[in-house]
Design brief:
single chain, 470 residues, mainly alpha, Growth Hormone, Chain: A, 3 domains
């Protein structure tokens, strides 16, 4: 099978998108190890300092669909540059912040900048690669994102210990500037064909208030309890706003924040559903494997971060390879294989016990890393390419929002299971068995709905190709 070559401008453009992806991904994890230092700097408590992380993730998850729609309407390069500019400026001010409240405002603005950058990155990456290399786009995005998530705690820990936690913010500025300059010089200028569309302010309001209420309920439910009246009230308010969003969007037609062609696309809806189910697996591993390492194995926070490398490095390295394999095997087989491996990885790790050494975690983490690399690169491509190209940024944003929302829901479920168990290891065992069940449900959805029926002609050609080589 001939591989379509990439020209010089496409390679440089992909570099710019990788830089943008890296800076957004690093910021999700880099500050996790700096929270104690931030507490000391501002003489504040853990609950307040923790919002340095929560504010960024929450605003990012709430605004990202709006960012995707704006990128499709007003031009992906333009919105990427605006988002990167907001991100860089907020990072600079955040690094200089004299008190914690200004830092939290800057983190919220960084969430807005990231939410504008991310869907524009997805749309532009799929836009600039040749038609036959769409798998490369998904693999590149997830590979760089995985690398950023993996090195975030290591970079954050190094900067915090060697200089100051403030340099976690300062290093964002030159990286974002490089991305902006490269985008201006290399990426094609935006066409203005969609700028006459009206902005759906009503849809933005419904979705923002609905998602914000749900995410706050999920965050507060862990500390206040899931039956707390405030938590239940936030869930109810969020559900009402999201139901209102659905009915409101039905009346807006093509100018809706999420147009009807996207809402009613079955293949896309199933990609979103699969992402929702699988996000619980990923987030459950990210949170409770380090918990086991620190509380049962006696690891320090830095050692637990290093302990996650078998999963995170496998994820980052294999994502780009998975993108290339996608071009050969197609969406159904790739997504299904990734989900199946995630289920296997969860069931392996569900055997964890109080006497399990660190080496006993490595096989399960590696299987999870392979599954994550295959799944996320493939589901992104499967979801984005089933929608018309003019809505690619919006499609990518919705899939990512499903990942954030599904992860938050799954993490809440995992936390409830672990908290109700007699011991940490008992809770992790039960939670990971439940996560494995969710992955099996995702596998059924993928086998039935993702990518249409299996392409038998493609499989025959692969068998003939394999025999010829043998």
């Amino acid at each position: 099978m001939a591989v379509e070559p990439l020209d010089r401008n496409t390679v440089i453009g992909l570099f710019a998108m990788s830089v943008g992806t890296l800076v957004v991904a690093i910021d999700f994890t880099a500050l996790s190890v700096a929270i104690p230092a931030i507490e000391r700097s501002f003489d504040t408590d853990l609950t307040t300092a923790q919002w340095v992380i929560n504010t960024y993730a929450m605003v990012f998850g709430v605004v990202i669909v709006t960012g995707g729609r704006l990128a499709d309407m007003f031009g992906r390069r333009r919105i990427f540059i605006v988002g990167a500019g907001i991100f860089a400026l907020a990072s600079l001010v955040g690094g200089l912040a004299p008190h914690v409240w200004l830092l939290l405002v800057c983190r919220a603005l960084m969430g807005v900048g990231g939410a504008l950058m991310w869907p524009a990155i997805i749309g532009m990456t799929y836009q600039i690669v040749p038609e036959g290399r769409k798998g490369l786009a998904g693999g590149l995005i997830t590979s760089v994102a995985g690398l950023g998530n993996a090195i975030g705690p290591l970079l954050g820990g190094f900067l915090t210990d060697a200089i100051s936690w403030r340099w976690i913010f300062f290093v964002n500025v030159p990286v974002a500037v490089v991305g902006i300059i490269t985008a201006l010089l290399v990426l094609p200028k935006d066409e203005d064909e969609n700028t006459d569309e009206r902005i759906d302010y009503g849809g933005m309001a419904f979705l923002t208030l609905g998602l914000l209420s749900i995410l706050l309920a999920l965050d507060w439910g862990v500390d206040r309890g899931w039956t707390d009246p405030v938590v239940l009230g936030l869930f109810a308010v969020g559900a009402l706003f999201l139901i209102g969003f659905w009915f409101y969007e039905q009346r807006k037609g093509d100018v809706a924040l999420v147009p009807e062609a996207v809402m009613k696309n079955l293949g896309f809806a199933m990609a979103v559903l699969t992402t929702l189910l699988i996000a619980a697996v990923f987030f459950g591993a990210l949170v409770y494997l380090p918990q086991f390492m620190t509380k049962t194995l006696g690891f320090s926070a830095a050692e637990a971060g290093l302990g996650m490398l078998p999963m995170m490095v496998t994820y980052a390295v294999l994502s780009i390879v998975a993108g290339r394999i996608y071009e050969t095997f197609g969406p159904k087989l790739m997504v299904s294989a990734g989900v199946a491996l995630l289920a296997v990885g969860m069931f392996i790790l569900s055997s964890v016990g109080p006497d399990t050494p660190y080496t006993g975690l490595i096989p399960g983490m590696i299987v999870l890393g392979i599954g994550i690399s295959i799944f996320y690169s493939s589901i992104t491509t499967a979801g984005v390419t089933v929608i018309e190209p003019s809505k690619a940024s919006l499609a990518g944003a919705i899939i990512y929002m499903a990942n954030v929302g599904g992860g938050a829901l799954g993490l809440g479920l995992n936390t409830a299971i672990v908290a109700s168990a007699d011991t940490l290891t008992d809770g992790i065992q039960t939670a990971y068995i439940v996560n494995g069940g969710l992955a099996i449900a995702g596998l059924l959805v993928a086998l039935i709905f993702i990518g249409g029926p299996v392409d038998k002609e493609r499989l025959r050609n692969l068998r003939h190709h394999h025999r010829a080589h043998n």
